[in-house]
Specification:
The protein has 90 residues and is mainly α. It is 71% helix and 0% strand. The chain is built from 5 helices and no strands.
Length: 90
């Protein structure tokens, strides 16, 4: 796993952990069951994470997405992360 992917994964995991409870575990389980992928794969497939967040949180997914965006901070200007956020926030 390259450094960008590690930073991305850590930022998203941190945002999900901030939501409390077993949120990270629920998201990871859903990603595996629905898409056979890990959280780190969502950098290339942001629609997967968007779908899982909507399924778990409903319209409150906006708060989770805002937290992910905040955690990614300066990396949001870099190409793969910027594209990921564009899909996640539309």
């Amino acid at each position: 796993m390259n450094d960008n992917k590690k930073l991305f994964t850590a930022a998203v995991e941190d945002a999900l952990n901030d939501m409390g409870g077993p949120t990270l575990e629920m998201v990871n389980t859903s990603l595996i069951q629905k898409y056979k992928c890990a959280l780190s794969d969502c950098l290339e497939n942001p629609d997967y994470l968007k779908s899982v967040l909507r399924e778990i949180f409903g319209y409150a997914d906006i708060a989770v997405i805002a937290r992910i965006k905040k955690n990614l901070g300066e990396f949001s200007q870099e190409r793969p992360v910027g594209e990921f956020l564009k899909v996640l926030t539309k």
